[in-house]
Amino acid sequence: MSNTKDMDVKKEESMVLQKNMLANLFSELSNAKESGKKVVYTFVPGNLSELIHAFDMLPVYPEINALQSGMRKKSRDFIREAEKVGHSEDVCTYVKCDVGMMMKGNIGPTGEKLPEPDLLLLSYTGCFTFMKWFENLERLYPGVPVAMLHTPYQEAGKITPEMTEYMVKQFKTEIIPKMEKVSGKKLDDDKLKQILNNSLQAEDLIQKIFESTRNVPTPIDAYFAGVYYIGPINAGFRGTSEAINYYQTLYDEVMDRVDKGLGPVTPIGEMEEERFRLVVEGPPNWTSFREFWSLFYEKGAVTVASTYTKVGGVYDYGFRHDPEHPFETLSEYCMNCYTNLNLPQRVDLIRKCITEYQADGFLTNSIKSCNSFSAGQLLMMRNLEDELGVPVGFIESDLVDPRYFSYSNIKNRLDSFFQMLDQRKMILA
Amino acid sequence: MKKLHETIEKAADLAFDMHFTAAKEWKSAQPDRVLIGHLPIYFPKEIIHAVNGLAVSIFGTGDRMQIIKGDAYYQSYICHLPRGVIELALNDNLDGFDGFIFPSICDVIRNLSGMFKMLEKGKFVKYMDFPQNFRSEVGGNFYRSEMEHVLSEIKKINGVSLNIERLNEAIVLFNKNRRLINEIYDIRQETPWKLTISDFYQIIRGGMVVPVQQHNEMLEIVCEELQHNIGEPMDKIKVVVSGAFCEQPPVGLLKTIEAAGCYVIDDDFTLGARWLEADVEENTSDPIGALVDAYLKHSTFSSAVYDVGNPKGERLVALARKRKADGIVFAAPSFCDPAMLDRPLMQMVCEREGLRYIDFQYHENIGQFKVIKEQVGAFSDSIKLWDDTLVA
Lengths: 429, 392
Ligand code: SF4
Ligand code: SF4
Prior knowledge:
The complex is a heterodimer. Chain A is of the alpha/beta class. Chain A is 51% helix and 10% strand. Chain A has 17 helices and eight strands. In chain A, strands 2-1-3-4 form a four-stranded parallel sheet, sandwiched between helices. A four-stranded parallel sheet of chain A has the order 6-5-7-8, sandwiched between helices. In chain A, helix 5 packs across helix 6 and helix 14 crosses helix 16. The longest helix of chain A has 23 residues. Chain A is globular, with a radius of gyration of 21 Å. The N terminus of chain A is likely disordered. Chain B is an alpha/beta fold. Chain B has a four-stranded parallel sheet with strand order 2-1-3-4, sandwiched between helices. Chain B has a four-stranded parallel sheet with strand order 6-5-7-8, sandwiched between helices. At the A-B interface, helix 7, strand 4, helix 8, helix 14 and helix 15 of A face helix 5, strand 4, helix 6 and helix 13 of B. The complex binds iron/sulfur cluster (SF4) (2 copies). The site of one iron/sulfur cluster has 14 residues of chain B, from helix 4, helix 5 and helix 13.
């Protein structure tokens, strides 16, 4: 285990803001029945936050509940619960964690019971498991309407007019009518426009925050801290003025660090010497998140870009929600999420990050139960290594199943990876 | 009998020819012919047939090839099928194929399409996104555009445009193909001892790598031969196998199931060949529209399709009842997410409906069947001991 002594880290204003935003959301959720607000269960990649706000509904994200359960060390029991009713050991542990949580009373991350859904909004992208997940949820909540939005995959590395047309038609014939029916409200075009306008402002800001890693030292860690930064934009706040406020505050803090030449803040302490700059592919492990982070911190390794922070939207190539074309822009947003990109596109994006953010190495955290990310990663690594001559590292873990986080294996592999990076630095020096 | 044996032998050779010799010979007979490989489950082969092409089903390497290179491309926790497919691609077994189609079924197949792109295999690689929306003006239009995309790729290769007449001809041939296959399933439902499941499996799989006319001829021989009173009924239960729709169980496993006391009277092994549960409309002025319509209205149930409104568990039980099966064998490839994620829901329905089942996992090159044999044997015995309605 890490022998790093924990230090008190001063909470930045943005952290407090985020905490309050989430606390308010969960409190609204626990009062949903009294307030009459309708509750939508939905997913992060390809989420339709803007529409949920336009209809004054409240979102619940099963994936976020699962990751929170992982961080709070509750996932092991939930997963076991799901396995008891026949779920295989090998499938996505997010699904099992969520199913197990529901079987155990659906108590959310704040300890309060989550309200039952009024609508299952299956707008998923980049992973088949989401579809299966909702088939399970549908059986757990019989009679709750399901609105399904099928996002075509960017198989040819582009979005064709036919793909957009398919999605727009689904909005018009499936998604909007069901949301109108459940909420009892007609879609207000002006309101949606305003929300989309808010989205694009938050998107501009978050992209600028992630681009701050161009600086040496980088003021942020784009993987470990990055997962916190994407919280509001992915977890239901995209499209709100609160999100703009949060990202503006965070951006100011980051710029302040740049001005002062400071490295990232971590839960273990401030990163003093930046020794290795990494780009990381794949989701993190949540059950031992802090130990995982400390393995990097202790070696002065910092992440300048990560693909995981792009699952809820890729803003690197300039995509922003366009208030003038609401359905087209929502479609494009869904199709642009990271795991909806084909493998060559994923490699291009990583290549861009490695070169633009001057990374010393590329690391893959391969998640045992997530085929969407993991299948093909070895070829991606090989390709980037050959093409850029950048050292590549490979570790394996799982999202929320603690049985698959082996601290010593990961540490050994990381140590050799960092040694390799050290040697390369010496050769290049 | 002789004809039947010859057909089975021929089909087995075709099914497991990892060089796809017959398909390549077919292609080389004419310069504008194209060879398109497609992965499981379903692909509308009619459209390829109509533009001078042959759509060959690629099921991986099974237990017929040692995987050396393929393993280096996949983590241990990913199913076996893509390793074999990559091995075939890297070993040049797929040379001569003009294009590859990866039907949307799971993230592994989806990402494999990207790997083929990165490895620059074929003149085109297409991940074919089958619609999850079943309205004709929504999902139907999208599906049409997906098929048109494939056709445009083929035209770039051989210059052949789609012609309505030829597509209508193809539809007739494939309708006949499905009818013949279904006829054999029907015969086997009543008299499964006439043709073992392993032989039947090879007859279907072997036909999926040659022109449909050739397959139809084989199937006609089989149907004819099955009219005779062949084989001896045995004391076995009847089962439906579910979950083996992509990575295929090795023939040894099928033999094991039968040897352990089960007649497999329905299954999802080569599901693509029977995907459509009704004929595609013949001789229309819009045969692509007919294929779209058939997909939207007559698709079978599958892990690849979102099932709200028509749940697969219920459909599986209905199939078992129709076939008068005694139980279900859930056999899924290890690490196959779609099959595994479906299993608890389907089993729940079986329990509710009082239909017995067992489950196990396999991989396509599994060599030891002892444990499975014992498990299936115990299942079969338990049904035989407690149920009166037996096959013989
Ligand atoms: S398989 Fe991966 S992308 Fe899909 S739901 Fe699970 S964790 Fe998310
Ligand atoms: S066996 Fe299952 S997981 Fe593997 S490629 Fe086929 S459908 Fe996907």
